[in-house]
Amino acid sequence: MMFRRVERMAACVSDMKAKKMSVKSLITLVLIGLMSIIDVVVTESVTRPRGVSLTNEPFYRDSQWFTCLDGSRQIFKSQVNDDYCDCMDSSDEPGTSACPQGKFHCNNRGFKPKYIPSSRVNDGICDCCDASDEYKGPGATQCSNNCRELGRADLERRQQEIILMNQGFDVRQEYIKQGIEKKAEREESLKKLREEKEVADQLKDEKERLKQEAESPEKEAKDAHKAVWDAQQAVLREERDKQRANEAFDELDADRNGLITPDELADHKEFDSDGDGEVSEEEAKVVLGGVDQVIKPTFTASVWAVIKDKYKSEKDQVTPEDPSPVPSPPEDVNEGDASEEDLDMGDHGDMNDEDEEDFADEDDEDEEFDDDLDEGELMEKYAKHRADYEKKKEVKGKGEDGEEMPEYDEATKKLIEVADAAREEFKEAEKQVNDLKKSIEDIEKLMNVDLGPQQEFEPLQKQCYEYTDREYTYKLCPFDKTSQRPKAGGSETQLGNWGQWEGPDENKYSKMKYTRGRNCWNGPDRSTLVILRCGLENKLVSASEPERCTYEFQFETPSLCTTKTDVETGEIDSHDEL
Asked: EF-hand domain: from which residue to which, for each copy (predicted)?
């Protein structure tokens, strides 16, 4: 019988060689065959109770006595497998279902031996591929030995895995090549960009110097022009102030005798300093400078300057018949919710309708604010818009009589034109520097990511992979983020941002950690652990939530196919030639 088994094994080996299967696979099959032969020899030469493994067989050799494996007691050998549990550790009933904690050993020659709970013995269900667990009852006739078929299938499966791992290893080599080339390309680009930025910085400094040189005479000319305009307006204001003073005197001099006395101020409640509703004689004298009467020259020269901000003429005190109601703020607005910028415009003041229209028109020509800008860029853009508004407001400034400031003379216009050109050139030079700076930062950000010791994970960068189950579509963007969105439609929920490699020291690149995802209601921030394994293609194969707000992804990638089995020698190669 043993000789026939050797013959069959030799024939199988020859068949495998004909199919050019790997030596490792051959060795595996030979070992299985040898184990089967050894098992047969031992089985035929040594009698062991049913359900006992070769490892434990020596404990059952005594022909008269059996000692429980826990040493608790000794029983007659005849009591082993008598369908009655005598040992506390169930070791006297390895082949029956008498003991609740017993274990039955399936020899499974030709496949994988295993233990099953003894409660499954003779339950009518085939648990051992060699059918040894069903030796009486219905299972005895229903179960057959199919271990060899399972062994062959398992061997074929493992061979297929080896083939796929070898293919994945080859893809990984290509990934390494791409990664090294990409890294070199980025380093070269970074070097060139830094050189270009150095030149651009020098050009920007030069353009800034020229801008300042052009702005200096421009400012002098504009300031001189405005000074003349301001002087003219000051004269007009002074004349208008004198006119108002004379009009006020004439109005207050009720008896037209050329004098203003305290009793003539009684009807002007704006001079009621103590708030009792009456203008007393003492209050009136204070207004008049402490005297009982004043003449027009004295009034216009000294008194008017003190009272002009309080004084209300008769026409100012006339109440419209149907004044428009002042709108009240909404009741649900909390004053505390408004920011200081909303409540206090500072020196800028409120825009009138004409100013708002002018500023809005100018905004239409400018670029829109980008939601992705950081705080510094937003403040810079706001400052630009504010400056443009102030400049427009300055140009649109009205004089005392409502007229606009006169145009600049031709010489000043020429200086402004030169300064505008210098400013535009500086702006372009500054933009070039900022663009180069942004490009450098983008490349540095990519290069700061750990893409593996040989850049083998580089092809995964800037890519995204999805997996859909019954409820959600999950997304993995390596070195960026993880997310999920309802399969039926809805917004995306961020499950984590790229953190770091999380694998053990001996296999660091087998796990990825993504943290700081969207906060769970009344819980922690979401996070994701991505477990990587060798695969022929980059593929997100599963997603789950083993704990609340903690997700786990399974991802296959050739980047992790680190070994290759030589089909000629059977040797395992983990050396990356690149």
From this structure: 240-275
- CA–CA separation, 290 vs 282, rounded Å? 8
Residues 174 and 123 in one domain: no
Beta strand extents in 60-217 (DSSP E only):
65-67, 74-76, 103-106, 114-117
Helix H segments across 47-144?
139-142
3 state SS for 325-356? CCCCCCCCCCHHHCCHHHHCCHHHCCCCHHHH
Mean pLDDT of all residues in 175-193: 95
d(CA 122, CA 128): 11
Q: What is the pLDDT of residues 429-466, one digit of tens each?
A: 999 999 999 999 999 999 999 999 999 999 999 999 99
For helices 375-395 and 353-365, angle between their N-to-C axes, nearest 10 degrees = 130
Structural domain span for residue 289:
154-307
Tell me: do 103 and 203 sit in the same domain. Answer: no
Q: Which of 307, 324, 355 is the last residue of a domain?
A: 307
In a domain, 348, yes or no: no
pLDDT reading at 41 higher than 70: no
Over the stretch 133-156, which tens digit does the pLDDT of each residue have? Answer: 999 988 888 999 999 999 999 888
| Contacts of residue 482, Cβ cutoff 8 Å, sequence gap at least 6 | 474, 475, 476, 494, 495, 496, 514, 517, 528, 530, 551, 553
Percent residues over pLDDT 90 in the chain: 53
Query: Residue 568: which CATH number?
Result: 2.70.130.10
The residues, ordered by sequence, that sit 6+ positions from 124 with a Cβ below 8 Å of its Cβ are 134, 137, 138, 139, 142
**Residues 68 and 174 placed together within one structural domain of the fold:** no
